[in-house]
Design a protein that fits this description.
- The protein is of the alpha+beta class and 372 residues long.
- It has seven helices and 14 strands.
- Strand 2 and strand 3 form a beta hairpin.
- Helix 4 crosses helix 5.
- This is Intradiol ring-cleavage dioxygenase.
- One of its GO terms (molecular function) is oxidoreductase activity, acting on single donors with incorporation of molecular oxygen, incorporation of two atoms of oxygen.
- Keywords: Dioxygenase, Oxidoreductase, Signal.
């Protein structure tokens, strides 16, 4: 599998495929390849026996069925007594084989990560589109148990392919209009079953990438009085995707169908293809709540992490009480034209101990350090 992955990486690097409009894939591909080649890498599939024997797979299967039924009852598409369950033994037998059962691929934080987002479950903030109730389960693949004390960060574009909190050429009309909103961005803490729950949208598309959501997993962070987090470490940086056939149905609905940008399909997205390597599957498992996409969606995915791993992603902006503000010395500043990470062959700078994560007085906290 490693040899196949390296061949794919070499081919993609040779094409100069882009990560975002104007950007380059070199850093992203090398990062993913290094993760696939790591001798201590484990996937959720390797934990299947432990998760089944502990009862976690059965419990999560039944919880997800109940959650979908709850959403259907709330939307008027089912009665409380009409819950029909699938045989849990069948779910246990197929766990780790179907879509949305295994995910550990490291990916890029991309040029639009904004630190200082709020702890909240509902990320919509007025945005319209295919409303998705998303459950993310986080599994410690070193101990094969759910991670119960992590903060899961989530962000993605709106239905027409625009990221909030940032200003950049190629992000919508390139104006600063998106700087004043934090829609479709936020964090949630995992509960006793390792689950973090969000209400968001199926992301829209933009030039150069297939539709995707971003996630970062934080450990040991401190909750601040302003409902943000500070400190801790980051074990995982990943991206979630949508099955192409279903995505086509979503893109045919408003306001997705007003997006005039060229769409990149999963099959032509280099990071999606790399994400499928090594036995991983970064595709959401999605169910209709009602009869149509407009009635809402329920999505699930399991994320395998090594809590002791320490990734060092870098943001482009910080969310503050006045909107998105530049992050000091960010290598993404000037994206896609002049940033340090825009060119071929760039490498992340080594982080110095004690480097502040933000400037003092901004909403994320006061001088919160990046962890080594």
């Amino acid at each position: 599998m490693v040899q196949l992955t390296q061949a794919l990486a070499a081919a993609l690097l040779a094409t100069g495929a882009i990560a975002h409009p104007g950007g380059n894939a070199n850093r992203d591909l090398l990062r993913r390849q290094a993760h696939l080649d790591h001798p201590e890498r484990r996937t959720i599939q390797s934990c299947k026996r432990d998760l089944v024997e502990s009862g976690w797979v059965r419990e999560q299967h039944m919880r997800r069925e109940a959650r979908l039924h709850e959403l259907r009852v709330a939307a008027g598409f089912a009665k409380p007594h009409e819950l029909v369950r699938r045989d849990p033994a069948e779910a246990e037998a197929t766990y780790g084989e179907a879509a949305a059962c295994t995910l550990d691929p490291e990916a890029t934080e991309g040029p639009y990560w904004v630190v200082g987002e709020l702890i909240r479950s509902d990320l919509l903030t007025g945005e319209k589109g295919a409303v998705t109730h998303l459950d993310i389960n986080v599994i410690d693949t070193t101990g094969c148990k759910p991670v119960t004390d992590a903060y899961v960060e989530m962000w993605g574009t709106n239905s027409t392919g625009v990221y909030t909190g940032v200003k950049a050429r190629g992000n919508g009309d390139g104006s600063g209009s998106a700087l004043t909103t934090n829609a479709l961005r936020g964090l949630q803490k995992t509960g006793a079953n390792g689950t973090a729950t969000f209400t968001t949208l199926i992301p829209g598309h933009y030039v150069g990438r297939a539709n995707h959501l971003h996630t970062i997993i934080h450990h040991g962070a401190t909750l601040l009085p302003n409902n943000t987090i500070q400190g801790g470490t980051i074990s995982h940086i990943g991206q979630f995707y949508v099955e192409q056939g279903f995505l086509g149905e979503v893109e045919a609905t408003p306001p997705y169908n007003t997006n005039t940008q060229v769409q990149t399909k999963n099959a032509n997205d280099f990071l999606f293809q790399m994400g499928k390597q090594g036995g991983d599957d970064p595709t959401l498992k999605i169910s209709l709540i009602g009869k149509t996409i407009a009635d809402g969606l329920y999505a699930t995915i399991d994320v395998g992490v090594n809590p002791k791993a320490k990734q060092n992603p870098l943001p482009v902006n910080m969310w503050t009480s006045t909107g998105g503000q530049p992050y000091p010395n960010s290598p993404w500043t000037g994206y896609p034209d002049t940033c340090k990470y825009c060119g071929f062959g760039t490498k992340p700078p080594k982080k110095r101990a004690g480097t502040p994560l933000v400037r003092e007085g901004l909403i994320y906290g006061e001088g919160a350090p990046l962890e080594e």
